[in-house]
Amino acid sequence: MKAIWNNTVIAQSDDTVVVEGNHYFPAEALDQTLIESSDKVTSCPWKGEANYITLKVDGAENADAGWVYKTPKDAAANIKGRYAFWRGVQVTE
After folding, report:
1. Exposure of 93 by Cβ count < 10 A (0-12 exposed, 13-18 middle, 19+ buried)?
2. Structure confidence by residue, pLDDT tens digits, 24-35
3. If DSSP states are collapsed to H, E and C, what string results for the chain?
């Protein structure tokens, strides 16, 4: 699977976990040069607290376009430390 934004591969892996229709990529699959931490944090009743990342590609920015559950609740342990995307990021095979 690939996560693509602004014609650039943000993440690529054969090891994604699908939860609620979102592919969660392992951290090592991300191009760390294209992301930076965001201050945005949200909470899910069954997954826990999500921390967001902003994408920066060729001078363009996509704020809060990805998220990660660094310390998820037990029910979501399979996505611990994995990243998922939205806001125009295409996830394809």
Report:
1. exposed
2. 999 999 999 999
3. CEEEECCEEEEECCCCEEECCEEEEEHHHECHHHEEEEEEEEEECCCEEEEEEEEEECCEEEEEEEEEECCCCHHHHHHECEEEECCCCEEEC
Question: Which domains can be identified in the chain, with CATH numbers?
Answer: 2-92 (2.170.150.40)
Cα dihedral 82, 27, 29, 90 sign: positive
**What is the distance between the alpha carbons of residues 87 and 25, in angstroms, rounded to a whole number?**
16
Phi then psi dihedrals of residue 33, to 5 deg:
-75, -10
Instruction: For the full predicted model, state whether its pTM sits above 0.90.
Output: yes
